[in-house]
Write a structure and sequence with these properties.
alpha+beta; 3 helices; globular
Length: 145
């Protein structure tokens, strides 16, 4: 079991997402900032770190949405215990797209880069690998979107 943090950053009914530039869409899909919780790190700390590392944006957690296990197989032999958080960032231009990435990925491979952008929340059902599992929780408090 690997402990993971997942970030839902919402602004004006748009969700912060990204798509990989080095890999085809049918392999990696549309994703939200997420990643492994490091030893000695809390899930909340991991969410903030992952958001910054993967998008260059600093965020504030507005609420914890829950924890779900996700079977990553057959991609890799792993069960991800995902901690979902809603975060907010400084006001953004929702039309803006920007390039971010990891020069030294945790998996030890080549540098990765992706394009970050804002997807209308009602289209977020297309998120890859079960990352959209807690989107319904965002509808419970529309005032925070």
């Amino acid at each position: 079991m690997k402990e993971k943090a997942v970030c839902y950053v919402v602004q004006d009914n748009h969700l912060l997402v990204f798509t990989h530039l080095q890999h085809p869409m049918h392999v990696t899909g549309v994703q939200v900032p997420a990643g492994t919780i490091e030893p000695g790190e809390t899930p909340r700390e991991a969410a903030g770190r992952e958001l910054l590392e993967e998008t260059g944006l600093e965020g504030i957690i507005t609420r914890e949405l829950g924890i779900l296990a996700y079977d990553v197989r057959p991609m890799r032999d792993e069960i991800a215990n995902r901690h979902y958080f809603q975060l907010k960032v400084a006001r953004q231009d929702l039309a803006r797209r920007w390039i971010a990435g990891e020069p030294d990925p945790a998996h030890g491979g080549a540098a990765e880069s992706w394009e970050c952008w804002w997807m209308p929340l009602e289209q977020a059902h297309v998120l890859a690998a079960g990352l959209g599992a807690m989107l319904g929780q965002l509808a419970d408090r529309p005032d925070s979107m």
